[in-house]
Amino acid sequence: MAEIVASGGRALCVAVDVTDHASVSQAVATACDFASGLAAIVNNAAIVTPLARLHLGDPDAWAEAMRVNVLGPYNAIRAALPVLRRGGVIVNLSSGAAHRPVEGWSAYCASKAALAMLTRSVFAEYGDVVRVYGVQPGLLDTDMQAEIRASGLGPPSRLPRSALADVAGAARAIAWLVRTAPADLSGTEIDVDGVALRRRMDGG
């Protein structure tokens, strides 16, 4: 936020519990007051735990993953739709795990699969009003990846940190989607490492 302000922009930070619809609704209202409207939302909040085979995982932790990873984006979309400007953008942070099961990742995989269908549902119902994208950022060097490495479950846990991508690339792709809102990609899952996307972003 400090970088935005330092570069001449305006920024506001608001704490929110994504699993609580009232909290999310209040955050959306605050954002609208601050910016005189709402142009886009990015659903990025997610957890990867519990990391365990199905019969060993904690049922409460499994349910919490659903609340954060699925109910959270639903709450944000539900609150934002009535106030998003026409042509506004919704970005849901998806994952390759939405389409490929990984040992010990049942909660994360199932929740991201549900989120992918939520993206398609928003497009089916509101595609004439807003643009909605599911973005698969790839394996990024984040705290979540540190949890995955510590678990030892699934092929991604065995990747060295040096093999992970910097978050800047995914952030650039999301910013491009928000700025350009390409109609032909709305309602789809987008791999930020895809050659076609990179060419479009670079103007090729």
Helix and strand arrangement:
Blueprint: H1 2-6, H2 21-35, E1 38-43, H3 59-80, E2 84-93, H4 106-126, E3 131-136, H5 143-151, H6 167-180, E4 189-191, H7 195-201
Features:
204 residues; alpha/beta; Rossmann fold; 4-stranded parallel sheet; globular
Explain the overall architecture.
This protein has a single domain (39-201), classed as NAD(P)-binding Rossmann-like Domain (Rossmann fold), CATH 3.40.50.720. 46% of the residues lie in helices and 12% in strands. The protein is built from seven helices and four strands. It has helices spanning 2-6, 21-35, 59-80, 106-126, 143-151, 167-180, 195-201; strands spanning 38-43, 84-93, 131-136, 189-191. Strands 1-2-3-4 form a four-stranded parallel beta sheet, with helices on both faces. The mean pLDDT is 94.
CA radius of gyration is 17 Å
What is the average of the pLDDT values? Answer: 94
Uncertain stretches? none
What kind of sheet is the major sheet?
Answer: 4 strands, parallel
**For the largest beta sheet, what order do the strands appear in spatially?**
1-2-3-4
Find the CATH superfamily.
NAD(P)-binding Rossmann-like Domain
- Give the total of domains: 1
Gap between N and C termini, in Å?
31 Å
User: Any idea what the CATH architecture is?
Assistant: 3-Layer(aba) Sandwich
CATH structural fold name: Rossmann fold
Annotation, overall tally of beta strands: 4
Rough outline: globular
Give the amount of beta strand, in percent. 5-15%
